[in-house]
Specification:
single chain; 490 residues; alpha+beta; Protein Transport Mog1p, Chain A; Membrane-bound Lytic Murein Transglycosylase D, Chain A; 3 domains
């Protein structure tokens, strides 16, 4: 989580619409049409905003390797004639995400890269995203929505979630979703399958094993299921990448069939060697999640999510999600007046569609920290909901706030979280170190159990190890094989 200006809550939604453009179905280019001048301009304008939203661009050997592989696969699309026509970025984000935008801009997060097990899988994911751009899927989704008059405002690209489909529900939902980096156009199943097919074509052209598309989709599905289990959810298709690339599990078999008979390189050992040392999970500079606890060593704060809730750490906010509500922790410009700060957050959540203000403001102290809070009851498509903003003054020029949504009368679910906010000592902050990928060679006598025991987690070590390395329940290891483990290191 980095500082967030409350007035910027709608920026990514507006950006999503801009990327979709106002094209009509009649003049959308086909999969083999090169990058147009307008697309190049669109991508150049959007690129800095996307970097800011998704943790920024990484540099160094890891980023250079991803760029090399990405440019090689992207040029197979015919969007550009030279690798220099594409900008490929490794993002410093702890969510599993990848995307591409018009103009030759291709992105993957470091977290998604750590889930992969060979270079062909990396090329397949990036090729899939390029396939969306080559087929002009975002334009088609936007054009269809406009023709059906379904998308009148940025917030309408979102599902209603807890709040239904009312305008205030859409506005509030987009503010909360943005904190967990879930705001992009959702593609249809047919578009996903077409992007998979194009990605497989690109793999074949580049000399990679086309089966890599199926194996990376299988790993992603396994990771989604593991996340759901660890977070106590029943739905394994909710997490980040699956929010815009629905149901990877159902696409695995189709990808296998389309790759049948194809051959090529995977470059497994090269890939593992090149990603060795890559940060896994949260970057301490953006705060870390440990179970239900969030700790930010830079801002020197910590809080605990309510029982039964799970968190996702985004670039600009930490989202807190559960069956009985959702919320986010963020920060913004602070002039020294907590009451003004709380009111400004309410105004930002209401946006241009509805004036939102607390019924009253209360002052309190939480673990020695001056605080203020207010509640607004809002009518939504699914009935009334309570919106709470709870703000804390950490210094004369720094404040943080929770914004939560729950069904009317049930905002008390978040009270333990509000009361858990505390300052941490410098010594506690110094103990927060990142997790990293450590690539090791299996020795004689090593087993999945023995290697998994070295994983830097308190629970589900073997399950995490298997998913990380694409290992099924019946798979075993052989001496000389390279595998990934997650360790703590500076």
């Amino acid at each position: 989580m980095r500082p967030l200006k409350p007035a910027a809550l709608t920026s990514v939604a507006a950006l999503s619409l801009a990327l979709g453009s106002c094209t009509t179905m009649g003049n959308i280019p086909g999969p083999t049409t090169p990058i147009t001048q307008s697309e190049a301009q669109m991508g150049a304008e959007a690129h800095p905003q996307l970097l800011a939203e998704f943790g920024g661009a990484m540099t160094g050997p890891h980023a250079q390797y991803v760029e090399q592989v990405g440019r090689n696969i992207a040029v197979q699309s015919g969007l550009g004639n030279a690798q220099s026509d594409f900008t490929v970025t490794l993002l410093n984000s702890s969510v599993n995400n990848a995307f591409a935008i018009p103009g030759g801009y291709v992105y993957t997060t470091r977290q998604l890269v750590t889930l992969m097990n060979n270079e062909a899988e990396l090329a397949g994911v990036l090729g899939h995203e390029v396939g969306h751009v080559a087929a002009r899927h975002s334009q088609r989704r936007q054009a269809t929505a406009q023709q059906n008059t379904l998308l009148g405002a940025a917030g309408a690209i979102l599902s209603g979630i807890l709040l239904g489909d009312s305008s205030i529900g859409q506005q509030l939902s987009q503010g909360f979703l943005q904190g967990s980096q879930l705001l992009t156009l959702r593609f249809s199943r047919s578009q996903e399958l077409q992007a998979d097919e194009l990605g497989i074509q690109y793999l074949n052209r580049a000399g990679y094993d086309p089966h890599a598309m199926a194996t990376v989709l299988a790993s992603l599905a396994a990771q989604n299921a593991l996340d759901a289990s660890l977070q106590g959810r029943d739905d394994a298709t909710v997490p980040e990448w699956a929010s815009t690339h629905p149901d990877p599990a159902s696409r695995v078999q189709t990808a296998r069939q389309r790759a049948a008979g194809g051959t090529g390189v995977t470059n497994r050992d090269t890939f593992l060697t090149r990603i060795d040392g890559l940060v896994y999970g949260d970057d301490p500079e953006q705060g870390i999640i440990e179970g239900r606890q969030f700790i930010h060593p830079v801002f020197r704060l910590s809080f605990t999510a309510p029982q039964g809730f799970y968190m996702v750490n985004g670039t600009r906010a930490v989202s807190i999600n559960g069956q009985s509500g959702q919320g986010q922790l963020s920060t913004g410009p602070y002039d020294g007046n907590l009451d003004n700060y709380v009111r400004s957050v309410f105004r930002a959540l209401g946006g241009n569609q509805q004036t939102l203000a607390p019924a009253s403001l209360e002052r309190t102290t939480v673990n020695g920290i001056p605080a203020a809070y207010g509640t607004a009851r809002v009518n939504s498509g699914n009935g009334q909901v309570d919106v709470v903003v709870f703000a804390y003054e950490f210094s004369n020029n720094q404040a943080f706030h929770f914004a939560t949504i729950s069904q009317a009368g049930r905002s008390g679910t978040f009270t333990p979280m509000f009361n858990s906010m505390r300052r941490i000592s410098q010594a506690e902050a110094n103990r927060v170190v990142p997790r990293r990928i450590d690539v090791v060679t299996v020795r004689s006598g090593d087993t999945i159990s023995s290697l998994a025991s070295r994983m830097a987690f308190d629970n589900a070590k073997e399950q995490r190890f298997r998913v990380l390395n694409g290992l099924g329940s019946g798979d075993t290891l052989r001496a000389g094989q390279k595998v990934k483990i997650v360790v703590r290191g500076s």
